[in-house]
Amino acid sequence: MSAQPGAETLASGTSTGSVEAPTETSLNLYRFPALYDTLKAPDAEDIAAVRGLITRFVGEPRWSILDPACGPGNWLSPFAGDASLLAGNDNCPEMVEYTRANTGAQVTLGDMYAPPIDARFDVVLEASGVTSIVPDVDRLMLWVRTLGGMLTQRGAVILLLNFETPVPPRLPATLWRSRWRNVPGGKARIHYELVEDKPGVQHIRRSVDVRGGDWPQRIVEDYELRVWPGEVLDTLRQVPGMRLLACADPEKAGKFNAAPSGARLLVFQPDRA
Question: CATH class for domain 44-164+228-270?
Fold first, then answer.
């Protein structure tokens, strides 16, 4: 989406390791929830795009909202004032504890493919790009169907997918670098590079620099993420019991049938015909 490159969000344990160098700390950024929260916070335009989709396809608030891979809750916090219920799920204990303390959400520890939550939601929202760690389209379809089973009568599933786009001619290439941001005790910034592009998979390098605070001063991680071909959109229209209602460009409000290229928000609702 507009704030950050599309295919770079990690769920717990998905990093393949850090670059070996004596000045770099072999740690997963995901294990530092407050640092991760600050550096990965969605911007106002991204939040407005998601809010517009919820209002159009679900209706006016108040909404019950679930993020099935919530991380630090930075896609729950923006909707706290509109929510009758905020719920999250994550497989990282540090993230679960942090999100409970900082968002007031009901957060469970569990697998994103089958969140252990006995409730129904108006919105199941995964807008951080976790679909890029889903191994194949069959698993993606099954996940959409599972999440659809957690909806209320008016509910919708909203997922961010990162589709293939042209890559720079020379690699490695910078995808995105943040400004310096305030973190507890200091400042930090994050940098993403595309190291290698293979069919359907990108090798990403993520580096974090920190000034001050009780943090590692530098963290570097390499990992691979899936980038979906445009044709997968036709496959996702065939999820049993679900309808694909929108492929939205988060940077162009109101464009619900955008081409599958780059970051796109997909909206699914149960087929109630």
Answer: alpha beta
